[in-house]
Write a structure and sequence with these properties.
- By secondary structure, the protein is α/β, with parallel strands linked by helices.
- It has helices at residues 14-24, 38-51, 70-79, 90-99, 116-119, 139-149, 163-169, 172-177, 189-198, 231-236, 248-255, and strands at residues 5-7, 60-64, 82-86, 107-108, 124-130, 150-161, 185-187, 201-210, 221-229.
- The strands form two sheets. The protein has a seven-stranded mixed beta sheet with strand order 4-3-2-5-6-9-8, sandwiched between helices.
- Helix 4 (90-99) links the parallel strand 3 (82-86) and strand 4.
- Helix 2 packs parallel to helix 3 (70-79).
- The longest helix has 14 residues, at 38-51.
- It is globular and about 40 Å long.
Length: 258
Amino acid sequence: DLCGTIMSDRIYQPEYYFDFINQFYCIESLEVNPGTFVKPEARRSFFSTIISPTGFKPTSILEIGCFDGATLDIFKHAFNSKVFGVEPATASLNASLVNFPHLNGCVVNDVFERTGPLLEGKIFDLILSSYAFRQNAHPIATLEIVNKIISDDGFFYLDEGQFQDVFLTASDLEIGQGLFQQKNFYYSINGLIYLFEKYGFEYFASLNRHEANFRTGYQPRHVALVFKRNKDVIQNEKRIWKSKKISDAYVESFKKVI
């Protein structure tokens, strides 16, 4: 709880990360199977439950790191929304277009940090990111882009793992061949809350869950975090602090990377 983040000893800048991720990532099968929708449906169910009392219904949705398109497909049909995705892995993009043809023209094959000009003028009510935020080289710059394209009452849904469990459950194969090579940062949950609250959002809800590691069988913790845009933070530069365990040095450390 006292540690905000773990920063890689090398940060892949956006111009290099696109090439690297495409060497690392591939999808063995393009076929949709029952397991394809398990996590996307869990995300939809949790988000629908926690925002139901507010009457919020997103008309436009962006997913950062949309992988095989299953989450975008689920949310598109659940909310009857326009959807847009950004996915750096070409193999994943191809899978999404094969499995969900209606996403053709709605997904960009690039890293999010390079899509600012493309997204300029677009506004989204809901932004999703599942295990992709830690891949961004510049988290603060990422949130600055987000703040330009999210609606005043918009929500940000974030899936991330507890980094303590990531280290405990990693196999030698994952450590040696890509677990740490493909990620720029690993975050604690408190660290993510502090970072988002400092840059334009307020904590809204969270859900702790476990997912079995397919190699070890151990069930590491994963947390779904939902943030609501907080205009006071942006307009009045208020500093919202819920976790007093984390110091300002945590956020300052990011600035050294940018």
